[in-house]
Amino acid sequence: MTTLQDTKKSPQNGGRKGPAGGLLSRQWLGPVIALVLVIVANGLISPSFFNIKVVDGHLYGSLVDIIHRGASTALVAVGMAIVIGTRGIDLSVGSVIAISGAVMAVLIRDTSLSPFIVILAALGAGLLCGLWNGILVAYLDIQPIIATLILMVAGRGIAQMITDGQIVTFHGAFFEAIGSGYLLGIPWRVIIAAIVIAGLWAIMRKTALGLFVEAVGGNARASRLAGIDARGIKVLAYVISGLCSAVAGIIIAADIRGADANNAGLWLELDAILAVVVGGASLMGGRFYLALTVVGVLIIQALGTGILLSGLPSQYTLIVKAAVVMVVLLVQAPRARQMMGRFWRRRDPQ
Amino acid sequence: MINERYYPLLATLAVCALLYGYGIFEYRAFSDTYVLGNLLTDNAFLIITAVGMTFVILSGGIDLSVGSMIAFVGVLMAELVTGFGIHPLVAVVISLVFGAAFGAFMGLIIAKFDIQPFIITLAGMFFLRGMCFLINLDSVPITHDFVSAFGGFRIPLPGRGWLSASAIVMLVAVMSGIVFAHYTRFGRNVYAIGGDRQSAQLLGIPVERTIIQVYMLSGIFSALAGVVFAFYTASAYPLAAVGVELDAIAAVVIGGTLLTGGMGFVAGTFFGGIIMGVIQTLIAFDGSLNSWWTKIVIGGLLFGFIVLQRLITRSFSGMRAGAT
Question: Which residues of B touch A326 (CB under 8 A)?
Fold first, then answer.
């Protein structure tokens, strides 16, 4: 379907991109400016937006709140960014969150295993989900949207099967700390998310792995001919996404001290994809930016907070998100750029 | 030998017959036309949506906005009928025109700017769902003589069953879908574009116009599904039909339409929708199985059909070798 346009597009994208998107590349400008604008707008709407107080040794304030709420979305979004980098998509992240949360809650309730093993089991569930997606995409050559759709549909059923259709609640000091505890005033979930994301960044950008991912996304066949194990890289991307979702699932379940198979992580796949796109990645694959994806998450989260602060009903959030996606996509679209270019060229000589 | 393109459709028919046969074998009440009538009525809105989705998938695209469209049309109808006192039939026309316009707009962006349909229709899904909430936050009844007449209308079938108005609208929609797909130039263009967009363009097929028409058609069908759903439930709820887009895609795939586009049948989609309904009915009849088994079984069927499709496309010796 896209073959015709691909040939036209690729040289342009290639030319636009700096080497691996360094700090000075223009890619950074758009999302960062957008984030600053949204935050400034929030400040104008509500002057108390920038207030950060320390209550009971914890940081409080709208800015902290944005980061706090964004932690789980950011985890899912960076996994999604890597999958999108391989020219894929992972619709099953919400279901994986539900599954890993369910595994964790049931193990805590029914066994006296140490928290360490419980977390390993929940991560293992995420790993298996990612492996399943990856094999469908890489070895059975199924379109990513559809391959992950299977787990998206069946996953919630699996999660409900694990929890027996109930909302499983649990208690435990360790998990309560993960969900709503603080270290030196910083929420634990933010620390966990930051560690995972930094680790991923190091693996992707300090080794050649990130380059491999982009090579596979840019042209899977060419990368295979260049000696890259394209299928292995694809499986790895989905496994990483599954693991990231599992971490998010652990945090979300620990936060509400229970596993809700129906609602945990619902709609999160959309927010995650949105964040990746707002962060400047192309859905056509071939490039991904972890840090900018986090910026994308913060933009979306700040938009939601801004709408709440301005007193508009929270339902506006969906419309605003839709508008943001449209604008970002239109600005990114190579065709739109060509049209704009033609427009400016025509006006220049005058 | 039967043409390979009929294999998925035959598999769909076989699965449908097997499931229905199992039901009849296992539960005596299952053979009653009552069950059939309910199947057609309860799944009417899903099958209507899936017919529109079939065209989108045949063209190689996807439309995620259909579920929100169903909910939005419901809320819109409630507002027009109950709030403004407009006759339901006029509200139906307004809804269908809106569906066509919104679908065409999404198609325009997809075709003109060459952006992935998946993300544009995702934005459409957000937008319409948000619009629902703006008009109305609660579940409201739609009360009008015409609506109750629609709900009460039924043609008796032999046995205890009957054909409801929803089911009739659905059957008409399926018929017109079959005519569109197989007996019009538009239908042939859709198949050509889904099969190979580049060749279609070189053959002089108006690719952009056809893609816009495809999404317009999907908008009309999902708006019609919204109308049927609103009449069927006689109410509107902004959170209605969450996830129907996925059910519709699943119905299309289980109906044997190739996800890469270019191959499939509207009739298959009808049976795909019926299969999903039969699974739900079987699980309800069993009583001991929990509702989540529906999701797992549908996921499993989806997987089976997708693998079947892969095997078939592979046997077209390297036809799509370039696509990854």
Answer: 109, 120, 123
